[in-house]
Amino acid sequence: MSIKKFRRWLDEPGNSVIFTGFSMFVAIVLAGILVPLFYKYGPNDFVGMPFERPGGEFLFGTDQLGRDILSRTFHSVYRDLGVAFLGVSIPFVVGTFIGIILGLSKSKKIIAVISSVIDGINAFPLLILAVALIAFLGPGLGSVVIILALTNWARYARIARTKAVVVSQQNYIEAAYTLGYPRRRIIRKHVSPNVSSETIAYALSDFILVILLIAGLSFLGLAATPPTAEWGAMISEGRTYIINAPWITLFPGAALCWSAISLAFIVEGISRREGKV
Amino acid sequence: MSNSALVDIDSLQISVRLSRTRRLKIVDYASMKINPGEMIGLIGESGSGKTMLCRALIGTLRRRDAYISGGSVMFDGMDLATAKNDVWRQVRGKRIGYVPQSALAGPNPVLTIEAQLLESLGGDETLSRADAKKRAKELLDIVQIRRPDIVMKQYPNQLSGGMKQRVMIACAIALQPELIVADEPTTGLDVTVQAEIMKLLKEIRDQFNTAIILVSHDLPLINDVCDQITVMHAGATVENIASAEIEKSKHPYTIALYKSRIDLAPPRGELITIAGQPPAVGAWQTGCRFNQRCDFVTDACLIGEHPKYIELSATHQTACINHAGIEAKIGSSL
Amino acid sequence: MTIRLEGKGVTVTFGDMFRKVEAVKNIDVALHAGQTIGIVGESGSGKSTLARVLAGIQVPTSGEVFYEGTNIWQGKVSYPGEMRKKVQMVFQDPYGSLNPRMRVVNAVAEAVKFHQNADGEQARQIALDLLERMGIAKNDAIKLPRALSGGQRQRVSVARALSANPEVLIADEPTSAIDQSAQSQLLSLFSELIAGGLSVILVSHDLGVIRYLTDRVYVMESGDFVEAGDTAQIFEDPQMEYTQKLISSIPGHKKLKS
């Protein structure tokens, strides 16, 4: 894409917001890749005195145990964003699939059973459900992924089902049927792409929620636990010293906000685009 | 005649904001005159700018990120092209009524018909509430809704498509405007309902001497109902002609539209079609914008600006520079 | 003449046990080879439902549909196997009848692959040729449906239906949502196809279109045929009041001016 074309694209409503969000997101992901690869200090090395101020040798300062906060903040990226990615993509795929099947199914029994499961799960707030299930599975990031996979699909399934019902009544599906295409092909080529556009939009905003959920659970000591470098856990550890050494909580908190805001920008930009066209 | 015209649109340009810096001209060279009590049909294909022209008359361009970028829209001595909000408040609804496309809009679904009509009457501050109610019932009588007492208390979803459109017409004429803009008022309605609505519009015109602009893409309909026809193509008005004279059209586009009428074709006979697609909105070629689809095209049609109206008579203007030559050619081909 | 498609005692009932609506009431209809029939009526008359039953999309509550003597419903499937090619449908809404996420050439090529033993590049070429014949140039064919006008989309739908080489084309209001110039283009295309031997069932509320294309016309009112006959005869001498009303409502037929 030439620069001129890019500037034109950027000029269209919503696109500059998408671009800003996307750049912010890429920036933090890049930092999350480069820092663990090349930075001189590991996340759990005791490299300096406790409570060293930001600047100087330690750009983000050190925490109460003398660990480098810059290293810890960016080592968290693959945990926070990576786990969140898994926690969104697994439910996305499973939920979309189940929702489509449900939307197209003609068997009243199957519809009744699966719908009540979906409604049952959706009746509980995600955070409450997660806390309750962690009691069984034990704390850990792995548990969070399992919990999200077990529960969050229901939200995708509900969205996908509604959309699948709408799509299945469209003339192009009926046309595909009159052309004699096999059912499986109709689902794969004609229903899925049109349903998943809807669930992808939800997945992007869900990503934000899941990032905050992981950090929130870690803050409560239910997901990542010390000494793991993870934003929520770091904030939790640092909050005792927040008056005298605010940088311990400030940098992981900022990284968390940065990630959430970048995704929020993308979601906002997309909805502005759709609203315009 | 030009002095007495109720509406005089001259060389109107309408542009739309695509982004912060890009603008697209979607109407250009649109001119039109409407006399008091005249029923005028505005016909064109989708994308020809006919709806935008209506919006310029009812002042709702800004909602679509569009604005008037040139020309004038004179309404009874006021230029609506540069009118501010306070002028619009005096005009919109009070002096210019609007009947929307039936398929898209309709009465507000959460208001009863009565509430809807009272709202339309709200622009008249001199009217007491009791009088307004009485007037609302009168309006339903005018639009020939049977049992107005019952209908007043109903919600739009309890009415048929034709009834809803009658209610919309009642709202439009509530304050006895001098002009009604009806944008495809019968699209999506059955032909029998369409015929009734058209009859109603004509009766309203006869009774109150209201000028009516009827927008449609259906030439036979317009030809039937209206006194005068203005044809739009690719953002420009190309011909203005009296309904009765439509066969004497001097613009190839009007001629082609008229001859491609399905109701006049012999069954399975050769159907005259207009080849190709209209040019994309705003992406107009130089010269006449019909030159790619025209059977009578000459070299002069390919250059310069889109031709302006040529006055053939008081009720006939055409934008075809070859209008004299066309006559000879059609004469031989028919 | 052989009977291609025949509906016998077709009834369709919508709704649940508390409220039933009979959309189509015990209707017999027959389409002969090479014939074009029109089904005309107002919205809600059940004409679209009848068309969908004949196309095998809608299961009739009772009654049967036969294609050249064979019942089209075999178990839960309509038009099984090779029979499916023979009857194709074009829908009213040009915006809903094409997959919005599929380029139009691919939509047609998909049907070509399925019905003409061609694949990949070859199918694409056949699709492009077919679209060209329908008046869709290559630079438009590679676009997504939303970049095309209503009339163009409708011609793509026709091209897609024709790629199965059908004997019968059922068209449900093919012209009612498109501009006049696109309408006349589409109608002359239909007229050519009919001249080429295609049997057509045309569902429309536009009597002008019906008069232009059909040999025989059925007038439908609230689920039932009120009048049927040769098109020319119906238009010249309509017997039923309802038919007369329909005809007199066509713009251009009766001058509303007093």
Task: Walk me through what this model shows.
The complex is a heterotrimer of chains A (277), B (334) and C (258). Chain A has 277 residues and is mainly α. Chain A is built from 11 helices and no strands. In chain A, helix 5 packs across helix 6. The longest helix of chain A has 37 residues. Chain B is an alpha/beta fold and 334 residues long. Chain B is globular, with a radius of gyration of 21 Å. The longest helix of chain C is centred in the last third of the chain and has 16 residues. Chain C has a domain of 144 residues: 3-Layer(aba) Sandwich (Rossmann fold), CATH 3.40.50.300. Chain C is an alpha/beta fold. In chain C, a hairpin with a 2-residue loop joins strand 4 and strand 5. In chain C, helix 3 crosses helix 4, helix 3 runs parallel beside helix 6 and helix 6 runs parallel beside helix 7. In chain C, the strands form 3 sheets. Chain C has a 6-stranded mixed sheet, sandwiched between helices. Chain C has a 4-stranded antiparallel sheet with strand order 2-1-4-5. The chains are: A mainly alpha (277), B alpha/beta (334), C alpha/beta (258). Chains in contact: A-B, A-C, B-C. Chains B and C meet through helix 7 and helix 8 of B and helix 6, helix 7, helix 8 and helix 10 of C.
Give keywords.
heterotrimer, B: 334 residues, alpha/beta, 8-stranded mixed sheet, 4-stranded antiparallel sheet, C: alpha/beta, Rossmann fold, 6-stranded mixed sheet, disordered C terminus
